[in-house]
Each structure stands twice: as C-alpha cells, then as structure tokens.
Amino acid sequence: MRHSHARPRWPWKAFTLAAAGTTVIAVTATPAAQAATPTAGRAATLTPGQAAGQAAAAAQAAALSAGQAAGQAAALTAGQGAAPTAGRAAAPTARAGSSVTGWLRRHAVPLAGIDPAAPLTDLAALRPMVGDASVVGLGESTHGAAEETRLKHRTLRYLVEELGFRSIAWEEDWTVGLEVDDYLRTGKGDVNTLVRKMARTWRTREVADVLRWLRAYNATHEKQVRFVGVECFATGHRAYDAVTRYVAETAPGRKAELARHMWKIRPDTADMGAYVQWYYGVKDKKPYIRHARQAYELVRKVPHDDGDRAYELALQHARQIVSFYEYFDQKNIYQYRDARAAENLRWWRGRTGDRIAYWAASPHTAKASGMTVHAPGQPPLRFDGAGSLLRRWYGEKYRSIGFTFTRGTLAGADGRPARVPAPPRDWADAPFAAVRHAQYAVDLRASRAPAAVRAWLRTPAKMRCVAAYDPAEPEGHYMSGSSPAGWFDVIIHRQQISPPHPIT
C-alpha cells in the first residue's frame, strides 16, 4: 500500500518522553481525540466508566490533601527552624536527628564525582542496595540533564563491571535497539550516526559516551553486554525483513500469504518520523492492525520445535509490528506502551537469562502502580508504568533507582537554557537539597527510621518529573500517585544540573 506523507492535522499533544525520527511520538490525547480515536480492543482501552474512575484517581493523586500536606511539612521541617534559602541547606538543630533532613544527612553516601571513567570505589554502597536483583531500573527525573546521564553511566558501569549485569534495556524502539546491539557486539559503524537514529532525547554526547564505553567493554570481554530497545513507537524495516526471511526459510508455502499482509503494512520509507506522522492522520487504523495481527498469527502457526530460538525471535519481531500499529490506536497510549515495554524486557530476560539494567525516565521505571504525570498545558496522564509490572512479576528482584536533582538549568521548549529552581517545600524531593554533598546515594528501604522519616517515605506526594521544560511554570512538572519509597528503593541525587551536549 502506498502512503502519502503530507503532514496531517492531528489532535495529539506531544509529551516528549520519546521520539521517532524527527517527530515527537510519545503523546497523550486531548479529550476530543480520546473520544474520537478507535481502539484496538486490548486491555489497555478504557470504557467510559473506567475513564471516569481513572480521571478521579488522577485528580486525587495530583495534589496532597490538606492533612497530608500539613503532615509532610511537619516531617520536613522538624528541627529545621526557618525555611532554607534557595541554594543553601538548613542549619542543623538539636532536633535534626529526628527530622527527614537529619536522617538524610546521616544516611547519604557521598559520591566522588560524575566522571564516567573515574574509579568506582565510591559506588560500593550500591552492592547491598542492589542485592540479588535480576532487573534494576535506572530512572531519570528528566532526559535533559547531563549530570544525571553521567551518574547513570557510572552506575551502569558498576552494575556491569562489579555485579555482572550483561544486558541493558533502553527506552528506545526495538528495531533501533537491534542496530545499537550490532554496534556494541561488532564495533561496526559510527556511534554518532547511530545516536542520531535514536529518539530525540538521546541524541547527546553523554549518551554517545555510554555506547562507546559499552563497545570498549565488549571488545575486551568474552561475555558481552547486550542492548535491547523495549519500545514499539518506531518499528522499522528490520522487523519486517526478519519476519519475511524467517517465513521464506521455514514455511515457503506461506510466503505469498505473508507478502499480501506485508504489502499493506510495511512502511514505504525508512524515515519512521514521517511514517509516524502519516499514521497519526489515518482515521481508521483497524485495517492496518488487522493485517499486522494476521501476519503475527501466520508466524505463530509455523511448525517448530519447543525452544526453537529462531522461531521465538521471528515471533517477537512480528509482535513488535503488531504493537506499533496498536500503540497509536489507544485511548490510554501510555498504559499500552509501558505494558509492552515490560513484556519485551521480560521476554529478553527469559531469552538471555541476563541481569538487566533498565534505562528510562522515572515514570517508566518507578515500582508503584497508578503513576500520574503532569506537564503544563497537558491533561494529567495516568498509567501503570513498566516498573510497576516488573515489581509485580519479579518482586524484590526488581530494584528501582531514581535519579533526582535540586536545581540548575534545562533547555526550554525553545531550546534556550532556562533556570530550574529547587522543588517546592511540600514536594517529596525537597529535602534532598539539605544534604551537603554535590551528589550522593541513599537507601529508602528504611523500616527502622524515625516516625517523621517513615511518614515522608510513605506519604503520597508530588515529585519532580520534567519532559519539555516550561520556565514559566516550574511547578507544573511533576509526577504523583505514590511516595518516595513507593516509587524507588534507592535515590541517587545531584544538587546542580545543566543541559546535555547535543549531537546534531
């Protein structure tokens, strides 16, 4: 089927946690679009009653009740006296030992720096925090902070070099992930060219440095680190070609039937940004979904032996094609997206047996269900993040590490640097500023902490989460629906941040 790639008029609002090619593709629908968009008939589709319930839950999670706010403010300020000024920590008092800030100061483990190539001895405290986890989420409060990326890079090095992690699952499309994995295993290609194929948020020198290090590690180690993209937002030609090749080799009698489906759905361009824009504008997506599902069923029914890895991989490619077409036909697009991401990660773990580091934004990695993300000019976006599913499946063997910051500079929506102030006093991450370390780690699994600390750890609150930063509304960027310990097992905090260095 030939497609016109004229820019469509579509009602989706960008939420910029991910992008395909030149097009922002992680989106939330306006109410009008949600009412008009057809669904794929999957569990993620909301009935009117479910939508109303979800809206009520989002409203409840979006703000603290008066009682919660008062209780949390008391917990944060116990023994602090006057509020700290911007950029300065509160002075300790006689009662600081029972306050949240006093507890944080005693339990924070200082980290020596953010240089990814520096020795890792300061990260030794992570060993008991990670324990015997099979999967560790590395969640960032913003994609736009160079220092958070560098701290995540150091943490990834520790997981690989000291704890034996051998796969990294990334908030990136499946087929782009295949290209990254090829580079990491073989060294063929140019890393900057590869990074330009990734989602817009990853096109930075800091991310390129992560990939270069992974390649250098693989070049000198027999047991290599693998890379898997767990997203479905830009599934490209490689998946279609793999499915076609597999059927031609194992079931040549079904090749013509598969070709009829592929002709309808295989993108006619390698520019997935353009293709995504076009597919947004298609009013009736059901024919595309139907052909994708029929292609999947054809592959599923190919005769095979139990444990046939070629069959399993071909079926996974076909599943990604289905996911792409269904993804853009959902009322709750993030509910569907994160469910698929978690399933893809679980599939990869079953296939490789590797311990996996999951690199993504904090709303995806956080372990609590009922995530609500807020951004200026956008309706609240409520979904169960991939991390909540991983926690459900793996229990304590899924550990969630959140990377946070106090203040600094981010690129605004217009690309110019914009100042980001410290979070408001009643936000969950506000007390992190009181610790006198430039960066540090703290274990939030504190069952024996003072009552004020336990209240802070467990009380639902807002926490900073920045996609496209709007300096006119610095308090409009946050996530809600749980608490610090509900979302994360460990926090790695940086006091000052700045924008990453783009690769254009």
From TrEMBL:
Residues 1-35 form the signal peptide. InterPro entries: Emycin_Estase, Hydrolase/PRTase-associated, UCP036794_erythomycin. Keywords: Signal. It comes from the Bacteria. It holds the Pfam family Erythro_esteras. Gene3D superfamilies: Biosynthetic Protein domain (1.20.1440.30), EreA-like (biosynthetic domain) (3.40.1660.10), EreA-like, domain 2 (3.30.1870.10). This is Erythromycin esterase family protein. It comes from Nonomuraea deserti.
